[in-house]
Amino acid sequence: VQAGLHLWSFFLIMAMADLQAPFITLPDGRRLAYIELGCTDGTAQRSLLALHGMMSSRLGAVPGISQETLREYGVRLVAVDRPGYGQSDCHSSLTLSSFCKDIEALIDSLDLGKKIWLLGFSMGGAFSWAAARYIPNRIAGIALWCPVGYLWWKGISKKERKEMLTSYSASDLMFSSIAQRIPFLAFRLFAKWLSARMAKGPSKDMKSSLSPRDWECIQQPKHLDSVTRF
Q1: CA dist 147 to 54, 91, 96, 133, 183, Å?
Q2: Which phi and psi (to 5°) does residue 55 adopt?
Q3: In whole angstroms, how far apart are CA 197 and each of 190, 201, 221, 230?
Q4: Is the pLDDT of residue 229 over 80?
Q5: Is 164 helix (H, G, I), strand (E, B) or coil?
């Protein structure tokens, strides 16, 4: 029965991918799409904003979580499509700080409260870190799930850093060293690697993480080029 419910949830999400998502209109006219789960604004004890990772969307939300669990803990869960993902409009000049302004606009538009909790998945972790820096007055707390991180953060001791680095391959160690000292070069190297990988066509791993509609779209040359253009 439980397996059947999870399968039903999967197909429900796939069906939702083709529906028009609710959205807010930002001060510059862009639209930011989102999805809501759990409590309503009148019954919620706390608001949780989930920020997805690379090659994902609002539909990821919190995998496996049920409406009943969210309501039991009084959580109003909002998952947003970051600019350029899903049904949110692109932002040609996107920065970490500009997205934090988008978060503030979302908080106020949806009346999520004076402060919210953040959950950052993978690349979403970088934007969660940014929120801690740029809008700390709007953040009650942050949880990170396999986040993009920075090993040289002052809160990580030399001993902890050494232990983390033992699991790195030689190429990962080299890339991390470049990213620390010459971040722009690291960005260009990553772009080159991604372009070479995408030139061979989207991978099976990528296919499993996309909706059928997105998979069909990304195989078109004009869209494939936009993924690798830096």
Answers
A1: 11, 23, 15, 16, 18
A2: 60, 35
A3: 10, 7, 14, 14
A4: no
A5: helix
**Residue appearing with tokens 């970051």:** 82
Residue 111's alpha-carbon distances to 29, 50, 99, 103, in angstroms, are: 19, 16, 18, 12
Average pLDDT on 56-80 reads 89
Q: At 115, is the pLDDT very low, low, confident or very high (cuts 50, 70, 90)?
A: very high
Q: In what order do the strands lie in the sheet with 46-51?
A: 23-25, 31-38, 75-80, 46-51, 116-121, 139-145
Q: Indicate the average pLDDT of the chain.
A: 82
Total count of residues recorded for the chain: 230
Instruction: Among 70-84, 108-122, 148-162, name the one with the lowest average pLDDT.
Output: 148-162
Q: Which residues contact 126 (CB under 8 A, 6 or more apart)?
A: 96, 120, 147, 148
- Per-residue confidence (pLDDT) for residue 193, from 0 to 100: 74
Per DSSP bridges, beta strands 46-51 and 31-38 are unpaired
CB 118 within 8 A of CB 142: yes
Pair type for strands 46-51 and 75-80? parallel
Q: Is the pLDDT of residue 221 over 60?
A: yes
Q: What is the spatial distance between Cα 125 and Cα 53, in angstroms, rounded to a whole number? A: 8
